Structure formats: C-alpha cells, structure tokens
Amino acid sequence: MTRHTRQFGPLLLILVVVALVPVLFGVGGITNLLEQVFAFALFAMSYDLLIGYTGVVSFGHAVFFGTGAYVVGIFLAHSGGSSGGLLVGTCVALGMSILLSLLIASISLRIRTVYFAMITLAVGQTFYVLSGSQMLQPLTNADDGMTVPLPVWLTHDRPVYYFSLAVLVLCLVLLRLFVRSPVGLVLQGIRENEGRVLTLGHSVYRFKSIAFVISGLMATVAGILYVIAQTFVSTGVYDVSISLDVLLMTIIGGIGTLYGGLLGALIIIVAQTEFTNLAGTYPIFGRYTILFGVLYIVIVRFMPRGIVGTILESIKRRSGQEG
Known about the structure:
mainly alpha, 323 residues, ABC transporter involved in vitamin B12 uptake, BtuC, 1% strand
C-alpha cells in the first residue's frame, strides 16, 4: 500500500459514504443537519488556519462568517432569490471579507497575540450591534432576522446538500494546497519560532496578513453555506458564542490538522441538536454547555492534539516503528 493510498483512502471512503446519505436515508432531517455541519466544518478549518498553522488566536472570527451570511442573504432577499443575486452577493461578500481582514490585520497583527484576540472580539461585537440596529433595519430586519429566498435550482434539499458538500470539498483541497505551499511552511515556522523567521528575512506581518485574508475568505464562504442551508439569517451569526463554538470544534478535532475541523463540527453540531431535543423532556440537557466544558477539559488533558491529531500522531509513530 502506497503512502498516498494510506493517506487519502480513508478520506475518499468517507466522502463516498457522505455523498450516499441522501440516497440511503432520503432528504430531510439528517441531510439538513449535515448541511449545517458542512458550513461549520469549513468555518472550523478556516479558524484552524489561524490558530493551528499560524499561532494566531481570534475571538471575533464570526465577523467573517456573519458577513458572508448577511451579505448574501440581503442580495438574495432583494433579488427575489435569483441566481444573479447569489452570484453578486457572493462576490460582494468575498470582497468585503478581503477589505475587512486587511483592515483588522493592519490595526492588530503587529501587536501581541492576546491584544489581537481582544481587538477581533471588539470588531465582532461591533458588527453584532450594527446588524441589530434600527439604522440598518431596512437591510437586516434588525433583531427579527430575515427569511432568505433561494434560486430555483436550490429550492430542494438534495441540490443544497450536494452543493454544500462540493463547496466544502473544494475549499478543503484549496486549504490543504495552501498549508503545504512555501507560504504555508513559512506560516508554520512563524508558529514555532517567530524570531527565527524574522532573522531569515521574512516579513512576519505580511505572511500573517496573507493567512488572515485566506482564513477570512473561507469563513465567509462558510457563512454563505450556512444561510443557504438555513434560508434564514439573524444577528446570532455575529455572536461571540459562534466564535467560541468554532474554537471548541477546532480544539476537539485537532489543531493544525485541517481535518480536525470536520470531526469537531460534526461532534458539536450533532451534540447541540440532540441535547436541545432532549431538553424538552429532560431539562438538565438544557445546560449542555457544561458538558461541552467537561469535554474540552478532557480533550486538553488527555488528548492535547485533539482527536484527529492524536490519531495521526499514533499512525506516524507506528509507521516509524515499522520502518
């Protein structure tokens, strides 16, 4: 068995199984849940690019996720759910993401990580307040949120499912190529020893800015997938809890693995859904965030590299022993 077969074989098998879900189980509950998982999996991978490959922590990454959801939602709502509205909204959202990430980077990336995290949190909360303000109510419908019509070719569950899956796979491939590129290797060097990268003549600020832009773009695409899957958007997409959820997904799945975001999103989204359903019968499950806190402690204590990171490390160690 070749190295590539061992590496990509399981991923291809999982992809085939996921692609067959609508065929085997029909559309509805499980596909709707997985569409949400796809959106948050991409969001978690975008965050992993920052914290896992660059060593930068952000508490306001939901600003990109929310911008993608809101901008596309607004264009779809005002175009009657046309394909043109989706295309133009996507382009505008991606353009805003680039400008926003460059602005935040210029303000905060030159300072220490903890202050950077606080600045991103402040920006995220600013967007949260603005999206619910009366000033922007004609666009966002303020705190009530708005229903988002979709193009005709996305009005059924099956096309939405396969569209979301295709975008997720494409973005995963692009992110994998990026982290293995020369730029990605420099970013990993910055994570390990920023001073040494500086002595080699690289501009740490420039490379961090590139990572922040790419991460912001992927988070924006995740927000677009989210609004397509939910056909509704509200101020909650900017809430700090979204950023904390994606941080938890990344840590549980495995920081610095990319694939960990997929597993982390699956665990958290499925758990949130099931606990919410159980809360109607057993009120104790309404406090499921406590269980997430316990899970976080267990993962950090016994699997500091996350689930996927621990598995990959075990496989690498076993391959070394066999070699």
